[in-house]
Amino acid sequence: MPLRDILKGLRAMWGAWSWFWFRPISAKGTGIMRISLGLLLLMTSIDVFPDLDILIGPNGIYAEGASKRGMRLARWTYFDQIGTLEGMQIAHGLGLLCNILFMLGFKSRTTGILSLLANVALYQRNTWFMNGGDRLVREMTLYLCLVPCGAAFSIDSWLKDRKLIRTGQRVNKNPKIPIMAMRLIQIQIAFVYFMSGIEKWDSGSWQRGSALYYSFSTNNYARSDWLVAPFLDGRLGYDLTQVGTAVTLYWEVGFWLLVLWRPTRWAALAVGVFMHIGTHVFLMVAYFSIVSVWAYLAYLPYDWVEQLTRWRAIRKARA
Amino acid sequence: MKLRSYKVGMSIFLVAYLLTGIASHNRKNEVLGATYRKLRWMHTTLCLWQNWGMFAPPPGSTSWVLMEGTTADGSTVEIAPLMEPLEPGYFRWRYDRRQKLALSSFMDSRKALRNGIARNACYRAAEAGTPVVEVKLLRDRTWARRPKTRWDKPDSKGRHKVIEMGTFKCH
Predict the structure, then answer these.
(1) Range with the poorest average pLDDT among A68-72, A277-281, B35-39, B126-130
(2) Which residues of B touch A146 (CB under 8 A)?
(3) Which residue of A has its CA nearest to B81?
(4) pLDDT of A27-36, one tens digit each?
(5) How many CB atoms lie within 10 A of CB A14?
(6) Predicted model pTM
(7) Confidence bin at A65 (pLDDT 50/70/90)
(8) Under an 8 A CB cutoff, do B112 and A203 touch?
(9) Smallest Cα–Cα separation from A241: which of B142, B92, B55?
(10) Contact across the interface for B57 and A204, Cβ inside 8 Å
(11) Closest CA–CA distance from residue B69 to any residue of chain A (Å)
């Protein structure tokens, strides 16, 4: 094969790769996602504050031996170097400040990365008090910080526009950013469901349809015993949990396939929203449900904010 | 030029990051296992694991970690647990991270966590004015009743067992 054809093929492949990962999209959707993810990070940080002494404090619960082995890639947490609870509270407070700045969009990518590092530092100090939802929040923060997530609805964009106006230049009202963060979020969520579905597939109670019944039966996870009682105390409630178990299992395994095609994508997302709201209402799963539904924004049309604005303007004009 | 460098840099990151995610689930494969060992720092440094087995299998019981302390004179005292067992009629607004700690400690491999819970219990007992020399961790476990048992005998209780999780010396 001539070299020219090989180069042409490689160029075409690079073009397809670039289209998939770096195609420019409106920054407004990502801006809204940054604000809401910043709020989730902030809620996590506030949530941990009252128990900071037990969770990471000098007399708290952490792996003492691992802490004494010193800094390394897998455990670089600065909390190991701080000897007092007050010092740890200040360090955590600074992390909380980064969450607020990320949410407001001030030096968005820097404060986003700092928020991520602050969250990881907590996790590395005490691996056992965080759950899958916290991990998902960390992953989403990283993905947003790989693109200019502060290009819209942020202090960064406001400062940039103000500078442009001062120097007499035109303001870009519809900034574009690479699609990469949305792609990573889409892949991550599909991967989470698929892996979770595959693991559930091998479990007897998921196959028999009793998984939801047993999940509701444990006081460790149920939000309230009287709230789940209707599902446990009678035949009808049990039948409903059986339907819920089957829907969850097949939906999780097939989610990645369902979101590929637009008509089934809406159905898959609607089932997901319903399922996550149900999970959040009946079970204590921290922020897992919230961050999962947040991630669905990545599956919407990339100009959903503009579409919403246009729709509102039309409605207003008609009124 | 800046955009091209960004695209190239990010492409390298994307390939390595996604490959690590796939390799982490195929560690027994020779090539992917070796890849994972080389690249796992991408996950460990920022704690971005890709294990998602939520509720598989679902929990079949309710468990609470209880603690007993032994004082220097040999008497036994109760130490406040990380989270008090819930009474019937409960409702919770907030996710309790102390409970997450307690639930995490049931796996046999988590000796460091059990040590940490006991160390903290020693500290709290001393702070409360009842210093102890050792702490015993107990798992109070009640299994969920089968649906039919629950419907036929509403007043029945699930199987109950208290399991010893270890005794730890206070330093």
Answers:
(1) A68-72
(2) 10, 13
(3) A54
(4) 999 999 999 9
(5) 13
(6) 0.94
(7) confident
(8) no
(9) B55
(10) yes
(11) 17
**Rounded Cα distance, B87 and A133, in Å:** 27
Helices (H) and strands (E) in chain B, counts: 6, 4
Q: In what order do the strands lie in the sheet with B61-70?
A: B76-79, B61-70, B134-143, B160-169
Query: Across the interface, which of B18, B59, B115 has its CB nearest the CB of A220?
Result: B59
Whole-number Å distance between alpha carbons of B46 and B26 = 21
What six digits make up the tokens of A64? 């003492």
Tokens 């206070």 belong to residue: B170
Residue A297 above 90 pLDDT?
A: yes
A49 touches chain B (CB under 8 A): no
Whether the CB-CB separation of B90 and A224 falls below 8 Å is answered with: yes
A239 has a chain B CB within 8 A of its CB: no
Please tell me if residue A63 touches chain B, with a CB cutoff of 8 Å. Answer: yes
Nearest CB among B45, B52, B97 relative to A51 is that of B97
pLDDT for A160 beyond 80: yes
The two structure tokens encoding residue A250:
């097949």
Contact A138 B147 (CB under 8 A): no
Structure-block tokens of residue A240: 């409903």
- Judge whether residue A1 has pLDDT over 90: no
Q: Look at A200 and B55 and tell me if their CB atoms are within 8 Å.
A: yes
d(CA B98, CA A209): 31
The partner residues of A75 in beta bridges, in order of sequence, read A72
Q: How far is the CA of A183 from the CAs of A14, A34, A306, B14, in angstroms?
A: 17, 15, 20, 11
CB-CB: which of A61, A123, A199 is closest to B117? A61
ipTM: 0.92
Chain B residues lying within 8 Å of A177, measured CB to CB: none
Sign of CA dihedral A129, A133, A136, A140: negative
Gap between the Cα atoms of B12 and A254, Å rounded: 29
The H-or-E segment that residue A120 falls in is helix A108-125
